[in-house]
Amino acid sequence: MAGAHVSRGARHGLRSFPCKRTATLAVAAALAAATAHAQRSETTDSLVRPNLEVEVAELKVKSTALVASAFPRLAALSPQQRLAAAPEIWRVPGAITEFRDCAGCPHMVVIPAGEFTMGSPPAEQQAEAQHRVTIAAPFAVSKFEITFDEWEACVRDSACSNIRPNDEGWGRGQHPVIHMSFDTAKAYVAWLSRKSGKPYRLLSEAEWEYAARAGTTTTFAFGDTLSPDRANFNGSTDGSGPSDINRQKTLPVGSFPPNAFGLHDMHGNVSEWVEDCWHNDYTEKAPTDGSAWVEGECTGRVLRGGSWEDSDVELRSAARVGEYRHNSSYVDGLRIARSL
Hints:
Number of strands: 12
Helix content: 25-40%
Radius of gyration: 23 Å
Largest sheet: 5 strands, antiparallel
Number of helices: 6
Distance between the termini: 34 Å
Shape: globular
Order of helices and strands: HHHEEEEEEHHEHEEEEE
């Protein structure tokens, strides 16, 4: 598959009773304190919004009105004019922009409805024929790549197949979880959906590129060039390192500035699985509504964004790579979406 990665001593008697009782009381007190702390955390986390579903409903109604008002103008354009048109971002003023569904749930960013030209121009193009895509409703995307901490919460809940990925010595915690296959990524979103009662999922390719571009038409969200102070990738010309331009490992999520939508690390750090089946290029069958392209044999899936190991060419907003769904690598992680 083109560009694909390859895996890689106790007391006895009555005298012990008071000690046991004291220990039991201490444990109970500690559990009570932990429970109270968790409850306080959930109520004091400003991202856990008590009226979230009301705010989401208002956002959707207003977004629908914005989309409806824009469509007649866009429909009057020829296909060529529409393909060449600037991106449309239908952002609702004053609407909810970020949230968590629960304490410990991933930090989610609301991505506004919009329309954009997906793919890359001929001078840049590899397997990325340009086509216009309309995303008619807002959706939410995790602000950061999913971390080891977030993955391990799933494992502690007896889910995610009890898989504990190797961190390669680079660190766990807030580092992006690695050694993810498509199937393990799907296991995480399935667990989070059950835990939260909300529709979590992987992004489609179109959603991913729309979110990565964040209204831009340049090669990267930050312009037509990308420097190592903007993303974690191999910026060297000879592969030498580790250095400030070729760190040769993951970094904690959020180590670099966000794009205009508020998303971090859309370029580099780890490659991110999306829902689509792998196709060698976009054809007339590619969806134009932002949905995942799952037609055909789906043993191969798509990764987006490039990684710490890749050159800037693989980090382009339009860049895509295929991988077998069961394969995993130390460059592969995930980012998640939630339908609103």
